[in-house]
């Protein structure tokens, strides 16, 4: 994803699993039931680097969902967020917001509050994805933001818990496996609550510890749509379940 310069839970679980041509949806503590294979559901993620998006054209080319950058750290709001977020909605695209994390700038709780206050919340309108935490390589300095592995895990937990307390849903977690291993020690403790959005270009993704499947896959940084190219790991009905049953 771009910086500004350069569901699973015992009470409310939605998880999508795909493998060997079959897809399945696990809801709450119920088992997994296989369903017929579906065509890939494609989407995109954008930031302030993409201006004047024609969202109806995006929808006509097959986009089913979009994630839109709302905030970065504790003090920056994407100036194009409102128009992008509303534009996707008006075009009939399921959309959600994401926060580009800056763990060295403030606490996780502070950044979660800022994110929710500036467009990153969730509503039960059937059109809004849970907000996403984009936690990855530091574009401004030390790769792990000068945090130890334990401190990074604690920061993410603080963001997670605060976001869930404010919205009643757990955030989607965006990362890549190499950074996650280096900066969290490949911590697996968030896999039982946060849907995974994995970044991996050119090959099937390697998953961080704890997750046995991904919910979203960012597979390219250019293609059919503006911004980055993404895939949802399931069917339209499963995407609807993530949107509406995430609470």
Q: Specify the CATH homologous superfamily.
A: Glycosidases
Q: How far is the N terminus from the C terminus?
A: 26 Å
SS content category = alpha/beta
Instruction: Indicate the radius of gyration in whole angstroms.
Output: 17 Å
CATH second-level architecture: Alpha-Beta Barrel
* Biggest sheet layout: 8 strands, mixed, barrel
Count of separate DSSP helical elements: 6
Question: What's the number of extended β-strand segments?
Answer: 12
Mean pLDDT: 86
| Weakly predicted, low-confidence segments | 4-37
The amount of beta strand, in percent, is 15-25%
Describe what is shown at a glance.
This protein has about 250 residues and is of the alpha/beta class. It is built from 6 helices and 12 strands.
Tell me about this structure.
The chain is α/β, with parallel strands linked by helices and 247 residues long. It has a single domain (41-234), classed as TIM Barrel. The chain has 6 helices and 12 strands. The strands form 2 sheets. Strands 4-5-7-8-9-10-11-12 form an 8-stranded mixed beta barrel, surrounded by 4 helices.
Features:
247 residues; alpha/beta; eight-stranded mixed β-barrel; 12 strands; 24% strand; globular
Helix-strand blueprint:
Blueprint: E1 14-19, E2 22-27, E3 32-35, E4 41-46, H1 55-60, E5 65-72, E6 76-77, H2 81-90, E7 94-100, H3 108-120, E8 132-134, H4 149-167, E9 172-175, H5 177-184, E10 196-199, E11 216-220, E12 228-232, H6 236-244
Parallel strand pairs: 4-5, 5-7, 7-8, 8-9, 9-10, 10-11
Antiparallel strand pairs: 1-2, 2-3, 4-12, 5-6, 11-12
